């Protein structure tokens, strides 16, 4: 617990992040974490999860660990494996970004202490183009920001900071941040563009 507090409260804390976890999610089954309201800071950053998953059947008996709701929108290449050599052009692919889970309301975030995570837990997510439940990236239908987007992710004058696999950083506005290709390996395929938040998506391969 002390190590977790040190990382979230100090070592990897964004200076603009003022939020604290309200409580530990009761389904976590890891009481030793014992998140206390007001003690542990909401995670400032998340890694881009799609670079860490396999497609179903990729390696012998390895499980499919790409979420079903995301596979209905975008799929990583069947031959993809998590490797720096396979992400695509490093300068065009986001390694980590502002924002984290779990956003439970416009003013509340909770800590998921599940011992085994299948959706990145508190430290990984798919990004603004394909938000899942609990993500801080669900924008309005016209792609304007909601109060919780600003509070938990777009906290730099309504923009987010991202870092790419080549090490450079960039600040993205709401529409810029929605580009699906930023968060998925090269060769990934958009299955249903109407289900992503990227206004320029079309069904077919991403760059």
What does this structure look like?
This protein is mainly β and 207 residues long. The protein has 3 helices and 11 strands; from the N terminus they run H-E-E-H-E-E-E-E-E-H-E-E-E-E. The chain has helices at residues 2-11, 68-71, 147-152, and strands at 23-24, 45-48, 74-75, 94-98, 103-105, 108-111, 124-125, 160-164, 169-172, 189-190, 204-205. The strands form 3 sheets. The protein has a 5-stranded mixed β-sheet with strand order 7-2-4-8-9, with no helix packed on it. 38% of the residues are buried. The model has no long low-confidence stretch (mean pLDDT 89).
State the order of secondary-structure elements, H for helix, E for strand: HEEHEEEEEHEEEE
Q: Describe the largest sheet.
A: 5 strands, mixed
**Annotation field: number of helices:** 3
Q: What structural class is derived from the secondary structure elements?
A: mainly beta
Strand content: 15-25%
- Globally, the shape reads globular
Distance between the termini: 41 Å
Strand element count: 11
Count of individual domains? 1
Radius of gyration: 17 Å
The percentage helix is under 10%
Mean pLDDT across residues: 89
Name the poorly predicted regions.
none
For the largest sheet, list the strands in their spatial order.
7-2-4-8-9
Throw out a few tags for this protein.
207 residues, 5-stranded mixed β-sheet, single chain, globular, 11 strands, 3-stranded mixed β-sheet, mainly beta
